[in-house]
Specification:
Layout (H helix, E strand, L loop, with lengths): L2 H24 L1 H6 L3 H13 L1 H9 L1 H10 L18 H21 L5 H31 L2 E2 L5 E2 L2 E5 H4 L9 E7 L4 E2 L7 H17 L10 E2 L12 E3 H10 L3 H8 L2 E5 L1 H15 L7 H19 L13 H15 L11 H10 L5 H23 L12 H10 L5 H23 L10 H8 L6 H7 L4 H12 L2 H4 L3 H20 L3 H15 L3 H9 L1 H13 L1 H9 L4 H5 L10 H9 L7 H25 L4 H31 L6 E7 H4 L9 E8 L14 H17 L10 E2 L12 E3 H11 L2 H9 L1 E5 L1 H15 L5 H19 L7 E2 L7 H15 L12 H10 L7 H21 L5 E2 L3 H16 L10
Parallel strand pairs: 4-6, 4-7, 10-11, 10-12
Antiparallel strand pairs: 1-2, 1-5, 3-4, 3-8, 9-10, 9-13, 14-15
């Protein structure tokens, strides 16, 4: 043993001696027990392994005596939760959990339990706590509200499903518990204070989670995670079985098949719960051999691998390479593939599932043994890491003494020896997992794809595509055969067909080399069908190989741009435009491009040209963002500038049209105010425009045309025309969808407001959230003097003194309501916009600070964009020198992630990576620091 290990041994001994001294001092009974040398030796091993166990033994001296008496042969007595001791329920449960957990530590450390025993014991402990707590709460609810009765009079009880390792009976030592609440049928409770079943079980479930999860002076009982329920945090706390059925029939996702594979009823009406789970079986296990499970697994693994890389989690024995999750995913994927046809594989417990897979010849005996051995090794190590301080950790410790304690506790001479054994296990697991997910592709000789294409539709083999790198070669082969028989292909001239026969093999080659061959091919075929009758586009692809390569690259990487190209092939020209890879247009250039449409006298032609310009310019912005040639924030700002210029042109077109019919209003003024992402210069691809219309005109004036209109009606007609033109469908699509609900009085209000009524509304009747929206609002089109008048009203509104607590309360309530209604986050994905710590939380924070401080700091009213607001608030001292740059970085992260989702036609629900986790933490920390608690509370 080297000097370093000798030193660590000495530190470990000293730590143990200090622990013994503290234990002796905790009670006379403990002091007396530790006179015996044999007792000291047994207790010392536990102290050297677990700080948590030491603290529990200090707090509960009777536990030490019991463990020394029989080594914890029987579980610790379950506490009785009665109506008479309801005030002590949290304490009783927490003391029971810590005592029973310490018993499990004792038996593990002394080699009295196997790792399987410890996992089963930890699972049983969670079940006992759940069942004991739920039974007590049910009695309390029955006394207060009665029992829920269905229409037939039958009593209904809550069903608590345990998912994850709780469902699988393999809960780790300091794990949270994944729960989903349900109930068999709806109805009402039969007590004096009756509740509908939904409210009854929601309240009951919330009380259960709080009783177990809420930290007290005695710690917590179990951390409860309810995010795996249908619709995640946005879903109801408890659903009826009928509601659960409807969800899984309509909304169930692939990752939920993995989650519900392990589901088990663990408390409440267990019999009813298990019966319902049987009805869910067809969702989890398909009737046929379901190799799509591997696709879902690859996606989940890729997301986790990205998270591991970004968060530097290589030493995480759960999520890192060769970790626990890889073994779980491997077994679950094989179960999902064949479980529909082989009932023996429908097993929640991984330690049983692996032998079943061996018996089904899905895993060799040697591989099965290796995986099971690796699983037990990793789970035992995971438990020891968590036993150290009762922490929910999966990472290897960095502290040398902690490492030494773990290694010695597992009977290794030192950390290096343990690490070497761990590396062997992880390498073996990683190799098995990689083999399962290995892509099946090999190189092919040049020209093979050309021969394949020319043999269609009667000849050709799908294997050619498979060997070229297409994952779903059968589907690709079918799509190409169908395309080859497409009427548009058969109708081509000889010259056009010759071009197609040159273009298609080149496209297939490019698809095969792309990042997503199958997706690229699907998108290529959609595009080809759109351009077959346009010889110029086939010629472009035939004559410009660089455009062809560039095209496939774009198609493979962006579903959005693929759709745009298929819908509007004119955008192919952008791929050859030398400007596409050059400097991006500034605001003046955007204005010039859009105003060129005004040269067209015909309104329809003008609108079509304007839309084509908008499409081309937004496509150029998208390519720059996709290629990383400019930041996401620059891109969304340019899209907002582009929208500004489009609206300005449309206002001019609409004004000409209304004036042609009704004349003009003398001395009248009209302005368009941009709210939301337009006002904040953060517009996404496909975003709608939040607009408010204002006018000002002398009293009782009418327009001077052949069909005069009163000023209010004239400007209402103009606003209607603007909305109609922006949404009109042309050959180049529509410009923008428009949302006008932010106008005064919302949907009940007039489409266009007079300046005076707008000022009065903001002054006297607007809600706080409407003033928040005003923070980002700016004039985007119309009369310059009216836009300035709007600015004056905005300044007066936002700069007025406010009662801070009322303001804070209003902001918090509105955000909590939005979170409840709009947050789509779930256990696997985070809602970038509405999720906790997301973009809207950041916006609400900045708006709150502006409203709070603007009366003393008028400079806060100048910026509308988030980066500008952050700078202004920092300059004013509302944000600290640490907060401002952190929030600016957070905003950049959110915008980049959101833009990436849009470009790939994905909802802005993302798997959380290290950058997002950091960003969310910054937002939540900063909002909390400024007194804003946006968390949704129990009703």
């Amino acid at each position: 043993m080297n000097d370093a290990n000798l030193s660590l041994d000495a530190e470990r001994t000293a730590l143990t001696e200090r622990g013994l001294a503290r234990l002796r001092a905790s009670s006379p009974g403990s002091d007396a027990l530790l006179v015996d040398a044999g007792h000291v030796e047994r207790v010392s091993r536990v102290i050297a392994t677990s700080d948590f166990a030491l603290e529990t033994l200090r707090r509960q001296p009777d536990l030490l005596a019991a463990l020394l008496h029989d080594d914890g042969a029987a579980p610790w007595p379950t506490p009785a939760l009665t109506a008479d001791n309801s005030g002590q329920w949290p304490e009783l449960l927490r003391r029971y959990r810590t005592a029973e957990s310490t018993r499990l530590v004792w038996r593990d450390v002394h080699g009295l339990d196997t790792v399987d025993d410890t996992l089963a014991g930890t699972t049983r402990l969670a079940e006992v706590c759940l069942q004991t707590a739920l039974e007590a709460l049910e009695a309390e609810f029955a006394q207060r509200h009665g029992v829920v009765r269905a229409a037939d009079g039958s009593a209904q009880r809550l069903v608590v499903f345990g998912l994850g390792k709780l469902g699988g009976g393999e809960l780790n030592f300091s794990s949270d518990i994944d729960l989903v609440y349900a109930y068999p049928q709806g109805g009402e409770s039969d007590g004096a204070r009756s509740l509908a079943a939904e409210d009854y079980f929601m309240r009951l479930g919330q009380r259960l989670a709080k009783l177990l999860d809420e930290p007290t002076v005695d710690g917590f009982c179990h951390r409860v995670d309810l995010r795996l329920r249908p619709f995640g945090n946005a879903g109801r706390v408890a659903l009826s079985f009928a509601g659960m059925d409807q969800y899984f029939q309509r909304e169930g996702r692939d990752w939920e098949r993995y989650a519900w594979l392990k589901a088990r009823a663990v408390a409440g009406d267990i019999i009813a719960g298990e019966q319902w789970l049987e009805s869910l079986r067809p969702f989890v296990y398909r009737r046929y051999l379901d190799y799509t499970a591997l696709d879902g697994l690859r996606e989940m693994k890729a997301a986790i691998a990205a998270e591991v890389a970004r968060r530097e989690l290589a030493d995480d024995i759960k999520r890192g390479p060769g970790g626990i999750r890889e073994i779980e995913f491997l077994a679950q994927a094989l179960q999902l593939i064949r479980g529909g046809r082989e009932p023996a594989l429908r097993e929640r417990r991984l330690r049983v599932a692996l032998p079943a897979l061996v018996a089904a010849r899905q895993v060799s005996v040697e591989e099965g043994d290796a995986l099971l051995q690796g699983y037990r090794f990793l789970r035992r190590l995971e438990n020891r890491l968590q036993m150290l301080r009762d922490a929910q950790t999966h990472g290897l410790p960095e502290d040398p003494l902690d490492r030494h304690r773990v290694a010695r506790g597992l009977d290794y001479p030192d950390w290096d020896s343990l690490r070497a054994a761990l590396d062997v296990q992880r390498a073996r697991v990683s190799a098995e997992f990689a083999e399962l997910l290995a892509p099946r592709r090999r190189d092919v000789a040049p020209g093979v794809l050309a021969l394949y294409w020319r043999a269609l539709p009667d000849g050709g083999e799908a294997e050619t595509l498979a060997s070229s790198g297409f994952a779903d070669a059968g589907s690709a082969d079918g799509a190409l055969r169908e395309f080859a028989q497409f009427s548009g292909v058969r109708a081509l001239s000889d010259g056009a067909r010759a071009r197609l026969d040159r273009v298609v093999p080149a496209l297939l080659d490019a698809c095969a080399r792309s990042s997503q061959p199958d997706a690229a091919l699907r998108r290529v075929l959609s595009l080809l069908q759109a351009i077959l009758r346009r010889a110029s586009y086939l010629a472009l692809l035939d004559e410009q190989p660089s455009a062809l390569g560039r095209l496939v690259d774009v198609l493979a990487r962006s579903a959005l741009l693929s759709e745009r190209l298929a819908q509007y092939p004119l955008l192919l020209d952008e791929l050859l435009d030398t400007r596409v890879s050059g400097p991006m247009p500034d605001r003046d250039e955007l204005r010039a491009e859009c105003e060129a449409a005004l040269q067209e006298d015909d309104p329809e032609t003008c609108l079509r040209v304007l839309n084509e310009r908008r499409l081309a310019l937004s496509f150029r912005v998208a390519l720059a963002a996709l290629d990383g040639r400019q930041s996401a924030r620059d891109s969304v700002r340019q899209l907002a500038w582009l929208a500004d210029e489009v609206v300005r042109v449309v206002v001019q077109v609409a004004t000409r049209d209304v004036a042609a019919s009704h004349g003009v209003v003398a001395a009248g003024r009209f302005a368009v105010i941009g709210y939301g992402s337009l006002g904040g210069e953060e517009l996404g691809f496909g975003s709608d425009l939040d607009l408010v219309f204002l006018f000002d005109a002398p009293a009782e004036v009418e327009s001077d045309g052949a069909r005069p209109l009163e000023a209010g009606r004239w400007y209402a007609r103009l606003a209607q025309k603007v909305v109609a033109l922006l949404g009109a469908v042309t050959a180049a699509g529509r410009l923008y969808d428009v949302d006008v609900r932010l106008r005064p009085d919302g949907a009940k209000g007039l489409l266009v407001s007079s300046l005076a009524s707008f000022a009065e509304y903001q002054r006297d009747r607007a809600w706080t959230w409407e003033h928040q929206a005003l923070v980002r609002a700016r004039g985007v089109a119309g009369d310059a003097t009216l836009r300035q008048a709007f600015e004056d009203i905005r300044t007066a509104t936002l700069a007025r003194p406010r009662e801070f607590e009322t303001l804070r309360s209003d902001v918090v309530k509105m955000r909590a309501r939005m979170r409840t209604e709009l947050d789509r986050s779930d256990i696997a994905r985070f809602d970038l916009k509405q999720g906790a710590g997301g973009l809207v939380d950041l916006e609400f924070l900045l708006q709150y600070l502006v409203l709070r401080d603007a009366d003393a700091q008028p400079a806060l009213l100048a910026p509308r964009d988030t980066p500008g607001l952050v700078i202004a608030l920092a300059t004013a001292g509302a944000l600290s020198a640490e907060e401002a740059p952190a929030l600016d970085a957070v905003h950049a992260t959110f915008v980049a992630e959101g833009l990436a989702c849009t470009l790939d036609r994905r909802p802005r629900l993302v798997v959380e990576n290290a950058a997002l986790a950091t960003a969310r933490a910054v937002v939540m920390r900063t909002t909390a620091a400024h007194g804003l608690d946006f968390e949704v509370r129990d009703p």
